Amino acid sequence: FAPQGTTFDNALKWWSSLASDLDAHYDDEVDLDGDAIVPMVTWGINPGQAIGINERFPKVEDCPALDQSTVQEAYQFNGFTPGALVKELPIQVAFIGSCTNGRLSDLKEAAKVAKGRKVASGVRAIVVPGSQAVAKAAEKEGLPEIFRQAGFDWRQAGCSMCLAMNPDKLNGNEICASSSNRNFKGRQGSPTGRTLLMSPAMVAAAAIHGRLVDVREWI
Q1: What is the pLDDT of residue 42?
Q2: What is the dihedral of CA 58, 59, 61, 67, to 10 degrees?
Q3: 93 against 17, higher pLDDT
């Protein structure tokens, strides 16, 4: 915790200033190649049921024994086919936003994908900034217009479809590519709606193509 009496802004500065000593020793060091990390998407009914965009839906028998009942429940709910490719799965709704992925940096990455392109026919696409401050910053950079020209609906800051607030809900068994943080049954307003979590850029790419794609191929 930051020192007592610290303001929120100063607390952020305090935390960002924390760093290990230059002569610090570590038990282990791990180097990650960010370019090699495959975009992930969820396919089931909890955030842990996730795989790479170029993989296939897992087969029940290939999953750990403790997870197999949940995997079976997920397939009974979403109707997906074990062993089928995740890529190319069609969507009907695209949602970019939430407190998790509604930052200015998130919106800018999604706008890069959307700029000069159009949302696929039959896809309902929504962009919701994570706060009023983010909304103002995005407006200064012209992001709302980029999204609108591409066919996205730019909304006021709020929770929106992350938890089915106001009219922003799934209808029936629609499949939604969502940058929110939960994909539980009924989370987005329909007891049969299906939520696939992914990054804002991945959502934007899915909205443009009307199906799941690897955003790295379209940036």
Answers
A1: 98
A2: 40
A3: 93
Q: Where are the beta strands (DSSP E) in the chain?
A: 40-42, 50-52, 93-96, 124-127, 153-154, 175-178, 194-197
Banded pLDDT at 3 (limits 50, 70, 90): low
Q: Which residues pair with 196 in a beta bridge?
A: 177
User: Where would I find the beta strands (DSSP E) of 66-144?
Assistant: 93-96, 124-127
CB 180 within 8 A of CB 161: yes
| pLDDT for residue 1 is more than 70 | no
**pLDDT class of 34 with cuts at 50, 70, 90:** confident
Q: For residue 131, what are its two tokens?
A: 């706060």
**What size, in residues, is the chain?**
219
Alpha carbons 174 and 176: distance in angstroms, whole number: 6
